[in-house]
Amino acid sequence: SYVLTQPPSVSVAPGKTATIPCGGNNIGSKSVRWYQQKPGQAPVLVIYYDTDRPSGIPERFSGSNSANTATLTISRVEAGDEADYYCQVWDTDSDHFVFGGGTKLTVL
Amino acid sequence: QVQLQESGPGLVKPSQTLSLTCTVSGGSITTGRYYWNWIRQPAGRGLEWIGRIYISAETNYNPSLKSRVTISLDTSKNQFSLNLTSVTAADTAVYYCARGGYNSAWHDVGFDYWGQGNLVTVSS
C-alpha cells in the first residue's frame, strides 16, 4: 500500500514562511491535496491538484509537487494557521485514497 | 451552500454493526461530477479514508476495511450511508462524511465539503 510520510510537527514564527513536506514514492506523478484541521473541527481543503486553491483560501497557501516530495507552503504565517495539516493522494495500485500521518503546525 | 450532516448512534457494542447516514442539503446527491466519502479519525490520531460511492453506485473501499464495509445511496432522501460490521474497540472514532468531485476538466478537486463528524464509541 502506498505510504505518505509527514513530519509530526513544524514550528514557525509569526510572519515567517512554513513548509510542510509530504514524502511518497514518485509522488510527483500523483495529484496531491492538502487539508487543514483545527481542534474539534472537520478538515478544510486548502490545496488540490498539487497547486490549486479552493475559493476562499488565502493566497498565502501554496503547493508544489516533484519527484518524491510534495510541499505545502504557508507564507506570512498567522496565529490562526496553527492546525494539523494532512496530505492526500489516490493510490492507483489499490484504488483508494491515502492520507499522510499529519503535521502539527505550531506558531511560536 | 452545500451542507453534510452525519447521524447515527454514538455507542455500538462489540461485534455489532455500525450504521451511519449522511444527509446532503443545498445540492443534489445525483449530480454526476461528485462522489461521496466516509472518513474516520480516532481520538488524537490521523485521518483514515473508509470508502466512496458514485451516483452510479460504483464503490471503492480502503483495502484494510473492505471485508467489513458497505456504502450505499438513497437518492430519494439525498443521503448516503455507511455500514461497518463486526466492530471492535479499534473502530472507535469520529466518522466524517465528505463530498469529492471533479472540475470541468475532470481533474479531481478533493473533498470540498465535510460534515461536522459523529463520534462513535465501540463498547459493551
Structural class of chain A: mainly beta
Radius of gyration of chain A: 13 Å
* Major sheet of chain A: 6 strands, mixed
Largest interface: A-B, 25 and 24 residues
Question: Strand percentage of chain B, roughly?
Answer: over 45%
Rg estimate of chain B, integer Å: 14 Å
Main beta sheet of chain B: strand number and arrangement?
7 strands, mixed
- Determine the number of helices of chain B (DSSP H or I, runs of at least 4 residues): 0
Which stretches of chain B are poorly predicted, pLDDT < 50 over at least 5 residues? Answer: none
Annotation field: number of helices of chain A: 0
Average pLDDT number of chain B: 96
Could you walk me through the main structural features you see in this protein, from its secondary elements to its overall organization?
The complex is a heterodimer of chains A (108) and B (124). Chain A is mainly β. Helix content of chain A is 0%, strand content 45%. Chain A has no helices and nine strands. In chain A, strands 1, 3, 4, 7, 8 and 9 form a six-stranded mixed sheet that branches. Chain A is globular and about 40 Å long. The mean pLDDT of chain A is 97. With 124 residues, chain B is mostly beta strands. Chain B is built from no helices and eleven strands. Chain B has strands at 3-7, 11-12, 18-25, 34-41, 48-54, 59-61, 69-74, 79-84, 93-102, 108-114, 118-122. In chain B, strands 2, 4, 5, 6, 9, 10 and 11 form a seven-stranded mixed sheet that branches. A four-stranded antiparallel sheet of chain B has the order 1-3-8-7, with no helix packed on it. At the A-B interface, strand 3, strand 7 and strand 8 of A face strand 5 and strand 10 of B.
